[in-house]
Amino acid sequence: MPHPFLCPWWLTWTFDNPVRRLIHDPQRIVGPFVHPGDMVADIGCGMGHFSLGLARAVGPSGRVLAIDLQARQLEAVNRRAAREGLQSRIETRAAQPAEPLPLPPGIAFALAFWMLHEVPGVDAFLAQVRDSLAPGGTFLVVEPSVHVGRAQFDDEVARAKAAGFSATPLTGIRFSRAVLLRRAG
Ligand SMILES: C[S@@+](CC[C@H](N)C(=O)[O-])C[C@H]1O[C@@H](n2cnc3c(N)ncnc32)[C@H](O)[C@@H]1O
After folding, report:
1. Contact 12, 47 (CB under 8 A)
2. Counting atoms of ligand 1 from 1, which one is nearest the CA of 15?
């Protein structure tokens, strides 16, 4: 299935820059769901704003899988991780269009920040994330309110429920609509 829209690597800088930390503080947004030692995934990581925050949250014994379709994004993540001394905690993985996500089982927390609306096969994507989650694992989906209206977001949440997630709405993430998904059963 072709991509309806893929955020180009160069556009990412317009929202992933030094000001971002003030708007989207990773510690505040993902901190409550992550524990030291966890294996977590940042799916559609872009230039890695949240991958870096997750790496701090999981600590030296944890691991962050930073996954993206675009090699340029993954190069930026590796550069930033090295600059901040976090490279041993972050593993970049290239996703391929129309192929299963490079996700192992046992993920404690997965994040899809401002990316789900770019995925053409949402149902298959949700099923793959569900299957990769450890028991009790959670999946935070955050969408940009400027691109994803209420009806589209509600449709994404309905698809997540059909895929076997329970859904808890989250508020307080700026410029965004958010839901915390938990693998049901
Ligand atoms: C708008 S950017 C957001 C980046 C990052 N999550 C952030 O908040 O800074 C969306 C990213 O998702 C990636 N992406 C889109 N579809 C994807 C897929 N199916 N698998 C992996 N990455 C994907 C794009 O390449 C792009 O880097």
Report:
1. yes
2. 9
Gap between the terminal Cα atoms of the chain: 31
C-alpha to C-alpha distance for 105 and 5, rounded to whole angstroms: 28
C-alpha 40/C-alpha 107 separation (Å) is 5
**Domain ranges, residue 146:** 23-183
Whether residue 125 is contained in a domain is answered as: yes
Domain contains 130: yes
In a domain, 89, yes or no: yes
Q: Is the CB of 137 under 6 A from ligand 1?
A: no
Integer Cα distance of 107 and 171 in angstroms? 24
* pTM: predicted TM-score of the whole model, two decimal places: 0.94
In this structure, what token pair is assigned to residue 101? Answer: 């996500």
The whole-angstrom separation of Cα 139 and Cα 149 is 20
The two structure tokens encoding residue 140: 């935070």
CA 133 / ligand 1 centre spacing (Å): 19
Residue 174 pLDDT class (50, 70, 90 cuts)? very high
Report which ligand 1 atom has the smallest distance to the Cα of 67.
21
> What is the rounded CA–CA span in Å between residue 2 and residue 12?
21
